[in-house]
């Protein structure tokens, strides 16, 4: 009997999410297969030790992104657009950091999509004004997260994870947070909003 072709929806897709930063850049890698989402890794690129040398930071971003790309072979990159603030110099530096991360992916022929911060929050929590803590808490309700070594890195890493998940949702595979939204979760569990901590390790997870 001839073998039936595999549905495209069941083929694994690897998505890398990036939350740009000039001192700390969050990144996350998820694998999507149908309605199943596995978190392969979420962590940060820490550039604080490089001091104020912006060129060295950009070099570090580019090199680390290439390492991650070669390790996980993502199909697509989802990256958060810079949030426009009042400090023009900070915005310029943040834009360069984002551009270098995109350039690393393009050098490996990986397409990218940019998402506004409010779009990311809306997709994950149901509110475009959600805080970092609310985003992280909702992710812990909908995904099994690998452990992360330092709690101080958690919010930067979960921000990147939310970008990757937002991109997945835009493809028509919205898990709808397991049927939940941030507002509904708070309504059902008014006393359970707490500081986020790392979840349990999944079999495929790689924490670093």
Automatic annotation (TrEMBL):
<dbReference type="InterPro" id="IPR012337">
    <property type="entry name" value="RNaseH-like_sf"/>
</dbReference>
<keyword id="KW-0234">DNA repair</keyword>
<feature type="binding site">
    <location>
        <position position="80"/>
    </location>
    <ligand>
        <name>Mg(2+) 2</name>
    </ligand>
</feature>
<dbReference type="GO" id="GO:0006281">
    <property type="term" value="P:DNA repair"/>
</dbReference>
<comment type="function">
    <text>The RuvA-RuvB-RuvC complex processes Holliday junction (HJ) DNA during genetic recombination and DNA repair. Endonuclease that resolves HJ intermediates. Cleaves cruciform DNA by making single-stranded nicks across the HJ at symmetrical positions within the homologous arms, yielding a 5'-phosphate and a 3'-hydroxyl group; requires a central core of homology in the junction. The consensus cleavage sequence is 5'-(A/T)TT(C/G)-3'. Cleavage occurs on the 3'-side of the TT dinucleotide at the point of strand exchange.</text>
</comment>
<dbReference type="GO" id="GO:0003677">
    <property type="term" value="F:DNA binding"/>
</dbReference>
<dbReference type="GO" id="GO:0048476">
    <property type="term" value="C:Holliday junction resolvase complex"/>
</dbReference>
<dbReference type="Pfam" id="PF02075">
    <property type="entry name" value="RuvC"/>
</dbReference>
<keyword id="KW-0233">DNA recombination</keyword>
<dbReference type="InterPro" id="IPR036397">
    <property type="entry name" value="RNaseH_sf"/>
</dbReference>
<dbReference type="GO" id="GO:0008821">
    <property type="term" value="F:crossover junction DNA endonuclease activity"/>
</dbReference>
<feature type="active site">
    <location>
        <position position="80"/>
    </location>
</feature>
<keyword id="KW-0460">Magnesium</keyword>
<feature type="active site">
    <location>
        <position position="19"/>
    </location>
</feature>
<feature type="binding site">
    <location>
        <position position="19"/>
    </location>
    <ligand>
        <name>Mg(2+) 1</name>
    </ligand>
</feature>
<feature type="active site">
    <location>
        <position position="156"/>
    </location>
</feature>
<feature type="binding site">
    <location>
        <position position="156"/>
    </location>
    <ligand>
        <name>Mg(2+) 1</name>
    </ligand>
</feature>
<dbReference type="GO" id="GO:0000287">
    <property type="term" value="F:magnesium ion binding"/>
</dbReference>
<comment type="subunit">
    <text>Homodimer which binds Holliday junction (HJ) DNA. The HJ becomes 2-fold symmetrical on binding to RuvC with unstacked arms; it has a different conformation from HJ DNA in complex with RuvA. In the full resolvosome a probable DNA-RuvA(4)-RuvB(12)-RuvC(2) complex forms which resolves the HJ.</text>
</comment>
<keyword id="KW-0540">Nuclease</keyword>
<dbReference type="InterPro" id="IPR002176">
    <property type="entry name" value="X-over_junc_endoDNase_RuvC"/>
</dbReference>
<protein>
    <recommendedName>
        <fullName>Crossover junction endodeoxyribonuclease RuvC</fullName>
        <ecNumber>3.1.21.10</ecNumber>
    </recommendedName>
</protein>
<keyword id="KW-0963">Cytoplasm</keyword>
<dbReference type="GO" id="GO:0005737">
    <property type="term" value="C:cytoplasm"/>
</dbReference>
<keyword id="KW-0378">Hydrolase</keyword>
<comment type="similarity">
    <text>Belongs to the RuvC family.</text>
</comment>
<keyword id="KW-0238">DNA-binding</keyword>
<dbReference type="GO" id="GO:0006310">
    <property type="term" value="P:DNA recombination"/>
</dbReference>
<keyword id="KW-0479">Metal-binding</keyword>
<keyword id="KW-0255">Endonuclease</keyword>
<keyword id="KW-0227">DNA damage</keyword>
């Amino acid at each position: 009997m001839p073998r039936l072709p595999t549905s495209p929806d069941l083929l694994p897709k690897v998505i890398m999410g990036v939350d740009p930063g000039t001192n700390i850049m969050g990144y996350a890698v998820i694998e999507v297969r149908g309605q199943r989402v596995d978190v392969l890794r979420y962590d940060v690129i820490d550039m604080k030790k490089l001091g104020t040398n912006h060129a060295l930071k950009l070099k570090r971003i580019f090199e680390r992104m290439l390492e991650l790309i070669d390790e996980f072979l993502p199909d697509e990159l989802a990256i958060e657009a810079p949030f426009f603030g009042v400090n023009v110099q900070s915005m310029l530096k943040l834009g360069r950091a984002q551009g270098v991360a995109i350039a690393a992916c393009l050098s490996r022929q990986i397409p990218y999509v940019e998402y506004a911060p409010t779009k990311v929050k809306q997709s994950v929590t149901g509110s475009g004004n959600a805080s970092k803590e609310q985003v992280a808490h909702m992710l812990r309700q909908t995904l099994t997260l690998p452990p992360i070594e330092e709690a101080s890195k958690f919010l930067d890493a979960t921000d990147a994870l939310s970008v990757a998940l937002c991109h997945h949702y835009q493809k028509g595979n919205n898990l709808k947070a397991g049927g939940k939204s941030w507002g509904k979760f708070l309504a059902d569990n008014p006393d359970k909003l707490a500081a986020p901590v790392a979840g349990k390790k999944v079999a495929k997870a790689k924490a670093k």
